[in-house]
Design goal:
Number of strands: 4
Structural class: alpha+beta
Strand content: 5-15%
Distance between the termini: 122 Å
Oligomer: single chain
């Protein structure tokens, strides 16, 4: 084999090696690009997943926030309604309380009422001796009907007339002075207690109004407010 043949063969081998190298480089390039595209797609999908998760998290937060705000607004509305209802019912009680003040203006009717309240108190206590307190302005009225009230009690209870001591030192609060005075007051009536003070019958007009108010409050709310 002469030099020309050797040179030719060497060139063929070089071309073959170069071709194989180029093909291999191309394969590596294609494989690298595929791997790059796959990794890029995975990164894109991972970011998309993070974005969706973040969106879902914020959407849930907004939903919870809206529910909390709605609940607070609803509670605030309910409180306003309940407050308005209480204001209406309380105004009715205040109006009734003002009407009580007029009871004592009718001297004859109030005198009979005092007697009946004393009898009722004695029947509740059923004590042989009691202490009676009233407003200072009612002391003469109480003393004028006391004996009659004791006899009425004795007839109803079938017992001897009790000993009733009218407290001349401690009186119930006076009638209201009018205006916006916040001093304690009493619209009338009596308070009767056993001698040891363990049993007390508060039979004032104000106390009776409170009892009726508590008992009738559900019915009042139902009729007035539905």
């Amino acid at each position: 084999m002469n030099d020309a043949d050797v040179s030719k063969q060497i060139q063929q081998m070089v071309r073959f090696i170069r071709q194989e190298a180029e093909e291999k480089a191309k394969e590596i390039s294609v494989s690298a690009e595929e791997e790059f595209n796959i990794e890029k797609l995975q990164l894109v999908e991972a970011e998309k997943k993070k974005i969706r998760q973040e969106y879902d998290r914020k959407a849930k937060q907004m939903d919870v926030k809206k529910k909390i705000e709605y609940s607070m607004q609803l509670n605030a509305s309910r409180i306003k309604v309940l407050q308005a209802q209480d204001d209406i019912v309380n105004s009715m009680k205040e109006s009734a309380g003002k009407d009580l003040l007029k009871v004592a203006n009718d001297k004859k009717a109030y005198k009979n009422l005092i007697k009946d309240l004393i009898v009722q108190s004695l029947l509740r206590l059923k004590e042989p001796a009691v202490l009676l307190r009233c407003r200072e302005v009612d002391k003469k009225v109480v003393e004028s009907v006391l004996e009659e009230a004791k006899r009425a009690y004795a007839d109803k209870a079938k017992v001897s007339a009790p000993k009733v001591t009218v407290d001349g030192r401690v009186f119930l609060p006076p009638p209201p002075k009018g205006g916006d005075s916040h001093e304690s007051y009493c619209s009338g009536g009596v308070v009767v207690a056993s001698q040891d003070g363990k049993i007390v019958c508060e039979n004032t007009l104000d106390a009776r109004l409170d009892v009726v108010y508590r008992q009738k409050l559900p019915e009042i709310r139902k009729r007035l407010l539905g």
